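haha ok so turns out i had the wrong file open the whole time. this is the CORRECT one, sorry everyone. sequence first:
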Amino acid sequence: MDLLFTNCTVLPMTGERESSPFEGAVGVVGNRLALVSGDGERIGRFRREHPALREIDASGKVLMPGLINTHCHVAMTLQRGYADDLSLMEWLHEHIWPFEAQQTPDEIVTGAELGIVEMLLGGVTSFVDMYWHENRIAEAVRRLGIRAMLGASYLDTNWDAFVEDLERMQRAAAGCERIRLAVAPHAPYSCSAESIVRGKELARTRGLHFMTHIAETEEELRIVAERYGGATPVAHLDALGVLDERTIGAHCIHVGEEDIRILAERGVAVSHNVQSNMKIASGIAPVAQMLRAGVCCTLGTDGCCSNNDLDMWEEMRTASFLQKVATMDPCALPAYEVLRMATAEGARALGLAGELGVIREGALADFILIDRRKPHLTPTYDLAANLVYCGKAADVDTVVVDGRVVVEGRTVVGLDLDALCARVRHTAESIAARARAAEK
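then structure:
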């Protein structure tokens, strides 16, 4: 059904510098934005040319691009709160990986469904995932209507299972333009040089993106340096020839000037996961420095067991504030720049610059409506600053993905949320019990 959203404040996000919001309307034909205008005559003509359209009065709302979460492990909603206040290596080896060893593919898809719903309700229209059994997560993506790049992950020990998963992913995603695929080795410290190169060659052969965790902890730096002649994780991956414009590097916390130069020159997109980095005390990524060097910096939440939510509004606010105090510069990472990281730059990381993350005619129709009639959003002197510094996930009223309304009035269309939450609780308790029993 063609759509027309009227009487809204449109925030286009089309410029590198702040683009002015305006009062107007946005029309959708198929899965594309066919009208973005404040011109009453053009709006009236659109109505006449599409007599069967559905018109939605968006008075009091901001219409802006949907948010793009460039790094998460969506099925890890099942581990939310399972292992808190631990160092990364202890968290992974003693708690998370043993828990994951007990999960079935059916249980993974249940966790993924909850994570996707959480993101949709928070205004995320696209996410980048990295996990096991991504073919099952593709099923949830198709059902719930979100857009995703799904990365089949692997360690040296499960290459054959990964290849099978990738084949299943391609079958599960066939015919769904909302799903793109990627190859995702876990990290340069947990995957050998040979398997990383092998994964990149597979990605290139199949025309897929490539993603991995990079320079997340000081322990990772130590391990990589010991194995590879003192190289940093970035330098090591660069020497392997796997860094390019179709690579997404999650975290990139412990990077020096030479690492940043490499990331910029190779066109690597960095996914900054500020709250996860803070919670595990991994460190503070030099985002302001990377941006000055021309690195494509985006935002991600990481998984629910290291964050502990999938709230991109919190990520934006925290990312800006932390860069200011880390650099002792109150001008670092201003509101509009961090909003671009969560929208237009996220689209660039996905290889969809100009198609997503902007409100312009011809772009894909992925956008959200924010109800600005809230005490914490009043008054408004600078709309971008209000959204970044004051906005909440609960302010998202409507979500449109690929031209289809998937959230309306803060309700996911066609979903019994209470039943889903009950199913997740039961599933998580069952897995945790099996994990504890396996430890004995």
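The longest strand covers residues 3-10.
again sry for the mixup
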